[in-house]
Amino acid sequence: MVNISYIIGAGIFVGPSLTLQLVGSGGMNIIAWTIGALIAMSGSWTFAELGTMLPRSGGEVGYLEYCYRKPKYLLAYMFTMWNLMNRSSSVAAQGTIFGSYMNYAFFGQDYKSDLTERLWSLICSTVLTIVNILSIKASLRMMSVLTVVKLSVLGLIIFVGILSLIGVIPNDNDVKSALSFQGTSDTIGPYASALYYVMNAYSGWHNLNFILDEVKDPIKNLPKASAAALGTTALLYIMTNVAYLTVLGTVTMKESEFIVAASFFTKSLGENFATKVLPILIALGALGCGASVNFSAGRIIMETGRSGLLPFGRTWGHVNPNVKSPVNAYLLQYFLTVLFTVALPPGAVYQFVIAFQAYPVYVFYTLIALGLIILRKREPHNKRPIKAPLVLVWTFMAFTIYAIIFVFIPVENPHYPYWVPYVTAIASMIVYGILWYYQIVIRDTPSKSYNEDIRQQGQVALEREVFGEYTRLSTDSNQA
Fold this sequence. Notes:
The protein is an all-alpha fold. The chain is built from 19 helices and no strands. The longest helix is centred in the middle third of the chain and has 39 residues, at 218-256.
């Protein structure tokens, strides 16, 4: 359930329309979402081997640090900085989707306003920040309720799609044409971009690797839970795509863009309930995804600050004694979220964020898959409770390399040059490398961090306890 709730966000309520625009046909769209599930499953096997070999929390940071030990902390630092930007931009993107559906509910299907969407997004990030600062219990309750909401909406979409397919709900759409391969794109470039949206919707398939310390018998349960969550989610996603195509058809679905789920309910269930209540429920589902990302982001900032991997780490690692939460960390997260919300190109916040987020993660995925192969050569005798089939590891790595290279094949984009988010991501990684050299090599902040102080204090206390007891026993013996 932890993995399922993390995986299912706004991607399935938005992505199918965007991927259909790229691949061209309903049949190919379903295949794209199926391929995404298989790629995620290959990645899940890869991470299961590393997770059971190194059964501790942390996920990618720990794997990168273990596999690539020189230069010290370089990849871990770059991943940390990327993760900070990734989570902030994710909250901004989910807030934008929230705004799209709230606009639909209050102002109608034809209302389009980039400014209003951003204002909704700012409201979301403000509310989430305040709640996370003031009450952990309230945050957890809010996320639980919102998770139930989005699962219920997804189940309703599939149920309505089945009723339309068998004729219980009237449907004037040509279902055979909608599910056919007519109009399939015959160039390779759009498929890389389409798979970015698909894989974004599946992101979170390795979420348990981040919290293995909290999992009972992780060596046994990590692969089982990951496979069950991913298999369940893939089935729901594929059935949802079929439902969208059955009710809307390819033309209407392409035109729907960010409000494809709202358009679906409007056509299948009518104007009133479908256009007022259900869009709000979908908006709340996006808010729920943003809430879970925002909640964990503050804790990640606090921990990385304490480890010395962020500038001014002691400031971000401070826990306010009055409210018992890392207030400074959440304020930094809020500032970055607002920055992404305001500064991104108009009319394409969601697309830009997904591309900007995804490009570095595929670089890290490639390094992790390669690292697994290196470890098998370097440390062949290490215990591996789960051993991923090499064909799956190579499949996963082949896709990540494909996704890194082929996004630079030109595709049409009315909002900005297609290459802008990828070049921006590359530039950001170069900046992170420069910051790593200054912070880790020149200033050596990990050796001066809060965590290092605690470790040294613990060593001193242990030495006093051990050697103090030894000294006392020696004195007693001499006196006797």
